[in-house]
Amino acid sequence: MAENSQHSTQLDDRPAAELLRQLSEQTSTLVRQELDLARAEMTEKGKQAGIGAGMFGAAGVVGLFALGGLTAALILLLATAVTPWVSALIVAAVYGAVAGGLALNGRNRVTRAVPPVPEQSMDSVTTDVEMTRERAKEGRR
Asked: Is pTM beyond 0.90 here?
């Protein structure tokens, strides 16, 4: 408690110009730090969106390869046990399920990255503004 009153006395003894200069420096530092935090958050969200988009692309490529190469072989294999049209239907259903799973996983990744707003930075700025208001009110008394 004594340290707090001593700190308050030291601030009271300093000229207003020096206090304003110090406030300006601290504000500049705080803004710079908040921008750095926002930049880091946006980079992370961009990575997540890129991974999700890549998964959508992978779902399409896997679907095309599957339709081209394995489809014919599996249909011919199943055609030995059931009629050819039933074997083709079975293979198409399996491939559709695989492609759907990849698409859902990709969508979930993209959804996590959107909206591309630096949420932590915004929370931190709000806290900083509130703290500054509180201190300004205390200083007026």
From this structure: no
